[in-house]
Design a protein that fits this description.
alpha+beta; five-stranded mixed β-sheet; single chain; 7 helices; 176 residues; 16% strand
Length: 176
Amino acid sequence: MIKFTNIVIKDIRLLNKIEDEFKGNVDVAVEFKDGYSYVISVSTPADLLEEMEIEKSNFVPPYSPRIIVKKLSKEIITQTIQAYAQNDGYWLKLCQFGDELDISVFNKLEAQHREELGLFELEGLDRLFYYIQKYLKVPSDNRVLIEPMFFLILGSLIAYGLLKLELLDFFSNFIH
């Protein structure tokens, strides 16, 4: 048995016969220790080129993600499945469930990415207020409260620094 982070593969089986090692595809059953299994499609680059020729297309049409290998052999396919099973099986799961993901997942990720990109446009205090809201989990409609709090804290820190350094006494003596 092969053990990975939270994934233990019990067996890897080719479900159909390999006709041409360098130009073809094969379905592969990946069985896990718990009895659950995936069926993953594995193709060669030449198979993809042939598919484009048949379809008279300049690209492979979008559909379920599949694994691409240089040569269809049990050894290479096993190595590839093992590599895809790392990191809790992230890439293996993507190949199995990629065409079933709800688009809202990607929309949420895109919105987060756009928000992060928007930070580059923020300057000065706007950027500071953004981070205060983000890390203190303050709703954006409470920004009205954040600004006065920020300036009170900043003013207090400055006054404390001046008192600590006894600069106020210096200025007081200077004025008299």
